[in-house]
Amino acid sequence: MALRDTEAFREWVERDRPSVEARLAVRAFIFELHDEPWATPSVPVQELSNLPEDEMRTAVLDAGGETVWVCYRQFYGSGDVDLIAMMTVKL
What we know:
By secondary structure, the protein is an alpha+beta fold. The chain has a single domain (3-89), classed as 2-Layer Sandwich (YaeB-like fold), CATH 3.30.2310.20. Helix content is 25%, strand content 37%. The protein is built from two helices and five strands, in the order E-H-H-E-E-E-E. The protein has helices spanning 7-16, 20-32, and strands spanning 3-5, 43-44, 54-63, 66-75, 81-89. The longest helix is centred in the first third of the chain and has 13 residues, at 20-32. The radius of gyration is 13 Å and the shape is globular. The mean pLDDT is 89.
């Protein structure tokens, strides 16, 4: 599986200016997408998925004291994953 589009990560860093700890935690989550893009804490978004071709998933991460929402699409035929959006959530 390949992580094809990571622009959302760079946009999040520039826009939200997360802490180094949050960036490292999110990078670790993204790295784990290579092996198990369906693993918790991610959940599928049925309304935005196009099964059996692809699936939209979201995850809410506690990342270095910050909460980060991650949205990505997993393509089943190729195994590729594209990051769609990321944002720091104020709870």
